[in-house]
């Protein structure tokens, strides 16, 4: 099988890291909020900030998926084919669960979304059984995404430790 030390195109790497920072922030701050452990002032500030930030991420995430479909990436050197197939499936699931968290988050909204004072978007659905079900779906999707992300980050650390320099493939600086 063709293998390579080729890096991701810079735009793909930028989109990966922008999405990673926003998703990790939304995940960690969202669960911290849900745990009830945060001071009241922080608890009040996080929801409007996160809702605006993740709404803005939606077009960026769509661009990421569309751009990803436009190029092929050879497997990293020294990865057995079965492991590479597993990684590809895990990556597809990461795209799917991230999309589900974004879509369910948007659709469960029962109040207008203020995009940092620039624009106000009205919710898509009337408050009711559907928005409540979508909130449950949002929670379930977030839990599954958190588990898969832990596996993703652990896998990258393990490969790095074994000398397979995956982070270099996702570098922002090289092409
Ligand atoms: C500290 C956090 C993270 C690190 C260190 C990391 C690292 C990496 C690296 C090195 C790759 C390239 C794998 C390869 O060589 O093929 C990769 C790919 C990928 N990462 Fe992450 N990542 C992180 C967070 C995230 C997050 C939050 C997401 C959210 C969905 C994510 C989704 C993906 C996906 C979907 C791919 C596959 C790219 C493709 O080929 O389309 N990563 N990540
Ligand atoms: C990948 C994107 C997203 C991630 C990782 C994420 C993560 C989370 C997490 C971990 C929670 C707390 C647990 C829960 O109730 O599910 C949460 C709650 C919430 N999310 Fe998201 N979310 C995302 C996208 C969105 C979007 C796009 C919206 C709306 C535009 C949204 C709106 C909300 C709201 C309103 C809450 C409840 C906060 C409160 O208690 O007031 N989320 N999110």
Automatic annotation (TrEMBL):
The chain crosses the membrane at residues 12-34, 46-67, 92-109, 137-157. Pfam families: Ni_hydr_CYTB. Keywords: Cell membrane, Electron transport, Heme, Iron, Membrane, Metal-binding, Transmembrane, Transmembrane helix, Transport. One of its GO terms (biological process) is respiratory electron transport chain. GO terms for cellular component: plasma membrane. It is found in: Cell membrane. This is Cytochrome B. It comes from Chromobacterium rhizoryzae.
């Amino acid at each position: 099988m063709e293998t390579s030390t080729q890096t991701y195109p810079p735009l793909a790497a930028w989109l990966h890291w922008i999405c990673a920072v926003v998703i990790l922030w939304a995940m960690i701050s969202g669960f911290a909020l849900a745990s009830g452990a945060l001071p009241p002032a922080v608890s009040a500030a996080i929801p409007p900030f996160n809702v605006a930030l993740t709404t803005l991420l939606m077009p960026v995430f769509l661009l990421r998926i569309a751009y990803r479909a436009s190029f092929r990436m050879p497997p990293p050197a020294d990865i057995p084919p079965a492991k590479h197939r597993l990684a590809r499936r895990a990556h597809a699931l990461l795209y799917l669960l991230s999309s589900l968290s974004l879509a369910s988050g948007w659709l469960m909204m029962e109040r207008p979304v203020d995009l940092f004072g620039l624009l106000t978007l009205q919710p898509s659905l009337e408050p009711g059984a559907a928005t409540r079900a979508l909130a449950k779906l949002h929670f379930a999707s977030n839990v599954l995404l958190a588990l898969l992300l832990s596996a993703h980050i652990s896998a990258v650390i393990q490969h790095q430790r074994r000398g397979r320099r995956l982070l270099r493939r996702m570098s922002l600086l090289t092409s």
